[in-house]
């Protein structure tokens, strides 16, 4: 029986043992001593708790169903099978939902691979087989000979997309996932343009004059400059095009020696922003004959470390008259190509000072800003003091034949400290961070690529563009500061040309790390791209912003 008094509903429960006495008391007009009054709010709370327990048992029963998993959790009820689909507006139950609490330490989950091969080498259109070959794209025979030297077979998805578009002479924003072959995607069509439109040396040019390249590639690090320079040299050698590299850390004489090339000078120049700016200021370099410019790893170039140097280089280049349109008869225009796996929000504002960004064509692959589906990625919630033992255990379990290991830290001081610890444990390794002198950095990454040492402790300096096809394990000792940095780090494994997909292990320590992990886990469960990055490519900021 339910009674309502003063606006509060109560439930009267009659105990069986007191039924007779209750009836007698009611007949005599006395209040029954066996009536228990339960407030309505308490009753509803008990019912909701019972429903949650029943629902939890049902979900646990679902996990018993055999099949491939998309996400594997330490708690089976939170694992997600590959057949399960999470709606766009649905809020999935996250493993990392409670990771800000101290009791969550020791928890983990892993994103399981959903395919074997990298998206870059998947056929873009299943009906067209593997797509056109490099020869069918109409590239110059000298470039095809250079590709044979590099042992490059069929083009990847981004190369099939970018090469035809860039051969038409349009300036472009070219965005593709890490490890997809972007270097050849921009080098091949631009070198093809130089070969198809040869130019005579500038009148009065001499060996003692400033270098006047027709092609310029701006890169954020000396290691990446050396890597791309080696590829460009292999492509240009059969065609007789001279290639030069320009990096910092040298005196004026060193810059001049790096620019030395047979007359009329280098046809293609690759350099870092600081070295290029210094060469322009000293008039060792002139850009009047420039016909194409590439800004590789655009997000790194837009960092405050390089922003001023980059703007000075753009100011020297003939971009204002060289609008991003194909040149007409007798008209020479500079083609600009901006390349990256992620683009910073301020990119359009910087470029709009020198050229019309609104007329750039945008080239983007389908897998852009998505977690690589062929790489297992494990996230471990740890206390800070537990990270070092966990790392040492990972290195101990990693087989000698299991490929190279990259260990990422967020600061140079952590790289140095961790290096001392590895020295104490007799673990042979190399260190790479931006505060090293140019002489100390020279050859470190090349030695790692050759396999002389299989462990590299580094900052995000090694996460941009470098070819790490020998790497099969990436450890985020410090969780990255941004989702863009995570994508670049995870892209060090499972690259085009890698023998095995590799794996990524991330240590999650701080509360702000958990915020990023929740976004990653949500994107993985919904099979969508990571949030907050598409707008910087597809939606240029308004003029005057």
Describe this structure as you would to a colleague.
- This protein is α/β, with parallel strands linked by helices and 545 residues long.
- It has 3 domains: 2-62, no CATH class; 130-196 and 212-364, P-loop containing nucleotide triphosphate hydrolases (Rossmann fold), CATH 3.40.50.300; 372-526, P-loop containing nucleotide triphosphate hydrolases (Rossmann fold), CATH 3.40.50.300.
- Helix content is 33%, strand content 16%.
- The protein contains 18 helices and 19 strands.
- It has helices at 19-28, 40-62, 141-149, 157-167, 182-196, 222-236, 252-258, 273-281, 298-301, 307-316, 347-352, 387-397, 412-424, 438-441, 444-450, 483-490, 511-526, 535-538, and strands spanning 2-5, 8-14, 35-39, 69-73, 80-81, 108-111, 172-175, 215-218, 243-246, 268-271, 292-295, 335-340, 361-364, 377-381, 404-408, 430-432, 455-458, 471-476, 503-508.
- The strands form 3 sheets. A 9-stranded mixed beta sheet has the order 5-4-6-14-19-18-15-17-16, with helices on both faces.
- Helix 7 links the parallel strand 9 and strand 10 (268-271).
- Mean pLDDT is 83; it is low at 1-27, 123-129 and 539-545.
């Amino acid at each position: 029986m339910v009674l309502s008094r003063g606006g509060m509903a109560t439930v009267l429960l009659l105990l069986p043992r007191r039924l007779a006495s209750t009836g007698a008391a009611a007949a005599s007009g006395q209040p029954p001593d066996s009536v228990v009054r339960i407030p309505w709010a308490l009753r509803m709370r008990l019912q909701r708790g019972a429903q949650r327990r029943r629902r939890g048992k049902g979900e646990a029963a679902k996990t018993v169903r055999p099949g491939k998993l998309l996400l594997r959790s330490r708690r089976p009820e939170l694992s997600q099978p590959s057949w399960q689909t999470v709606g766009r507006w649905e809020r999935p139950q996250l493993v990392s939902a409670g990771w800000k609490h101290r009791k969550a330490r020791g928890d983990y989950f892993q994103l399981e691979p959903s395919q074997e091969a990298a998206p870059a080498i998947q056929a873009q259109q299943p009906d067209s087989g593997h797509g056109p070959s490099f020869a069918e794209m109409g590239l110059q025979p000298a470039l095809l000979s250079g590709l044979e030297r590099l042992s490059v077979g069929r083009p990847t998805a981004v190369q099939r997309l970018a090469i035809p578009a860039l051969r038409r002479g349009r300036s472009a924003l070219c965005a593709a996932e890490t490890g997809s072959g972007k270097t050849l995607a921009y080098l091949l069509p631009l070198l093809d343009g130089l070969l198809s439109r040869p130019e005579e040396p500038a009148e009065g040019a001499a060996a003692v004059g400033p270098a006047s390249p027709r092609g310029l590639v701006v890169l954020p690090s000396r290691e990446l400059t050396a890597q791309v320079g080696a590829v460009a040299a292999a492509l240009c050698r059969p065609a007789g095009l001279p290639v030069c590299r320009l990096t910092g850390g040298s005196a004026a004489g060193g810059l001049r020696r790096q620019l030395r090339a047979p007359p009329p000078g280098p046809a293609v120049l690759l350099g870092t922003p600081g070295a290029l700016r210094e060469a322009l200021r000293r008039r060792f370099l002139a850009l009047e004959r420039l016909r194409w410019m590439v800004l590789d790893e655009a997000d790194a170039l837009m960092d405050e470390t390089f922003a001023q140097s980059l703007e000075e280089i753009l100011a020297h280049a003939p971009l204002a008259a060289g609008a991003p349109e194909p040149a007409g008869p007798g008209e020479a225009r500079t083609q600009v190509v901006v390349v990256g796996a992620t683009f910073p929000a301020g990119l359009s504002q910087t470029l709009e000072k020198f050229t019309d960004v609104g007329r750039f064509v945008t080239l983007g692959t389908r897998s852009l800003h998505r977690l690589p589906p062929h790489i297992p990625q494990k996230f471990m919630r740890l206390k800070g003091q537990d990270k070092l033992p966990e790392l040492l255990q990972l290195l101990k379990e990693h087989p000698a034949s299991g490929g190279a290991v990259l260990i990422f830290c967020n600061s140079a001081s952590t790289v140095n400290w961790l290096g001392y610890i590895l020295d104490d444990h007799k673990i042979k390794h190399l260190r790479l961070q931006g505060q090293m002198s140019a002489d100390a950095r020279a050859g470190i990454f090349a030695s790692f690529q050759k396999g002389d040492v299989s462990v590299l402790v580094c900052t995000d300096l090694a996460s941009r563009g470098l070819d790490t096809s020998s790497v099969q394990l990436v450890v985020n000792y410090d969780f990255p500061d941004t989702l863009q940095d995570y994508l670049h780090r995870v892209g060090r494994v499972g690259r085009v040309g890698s023998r095995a997909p590799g794996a990524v292990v991330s240590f999650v320590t701080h509360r702000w790390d958990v915020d990023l992990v929740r976004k990653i886990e949500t994107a993985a469960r919904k099979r969508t791209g990571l949030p907050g990055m598409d707008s910087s490519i597809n939606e240029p900021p308004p003029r005057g912003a």
